[in-house]
Amino acid sequence: MKTNVSWQEDVHFSAETGSGFKVEIDGNQLAGPRPMELLLAGLGGCTSYDVVGILKKSRQDVVSCVAQIEADRADAVPAVFTEIRVHFVVTGRKLKESVVARAVKLSAEEYCSASLMLERGGVKIVHSFELVEAD
């Protein structure tokens, strides 16, 4: 895996991933998200990928899955994440709570490399979910 990050000006950078996608990164949030926001987005994408995949393999009728992520950071530099809360809002038809709970647990404990890497680095990550019945 490879990514190049090029300084543009001030605190604005452009990233180009090995797969050819470009992302603007900006500490002032004028041209893109801040770096730590992208880290949270990466975590959200990683764990959501797992949860949705597990639910589909479990033949759950999922319509939507939103990972709402909030994080606390240390007051001192380096301002690392100290706790991250990942709350899934899973919408579907006749979803089984036990199956969704299992999908979230498997992602958190076995599959999501971003989550596991952060936890092994000392970040507390709390997972929760709620079910919404689709119309």
TrEMBL record:
<dbReference type="Pfam" id="PF02566">
    <property type="entry name" value="OsmC"/>
</dbReference>
<protein>
    <submittedName>
        <fullName>OsmC family protein</fullName>
    </submittedName>
</protein>
<dbReference type="InterPro" id="IPR036102">
    <property type="entry name" value="OsmC/Ohrsf"/>
</dbReference>
<dbReference type="InterPro" id="IPR015946">
    <property type="entry name" value="KH_dom-like_a/b"/>
</dbReference>
<dbReference type="InterPro" id="IPR003718">
    <property type="entry name" value="OsmC/Ohr_fam"/>
</dbReference>
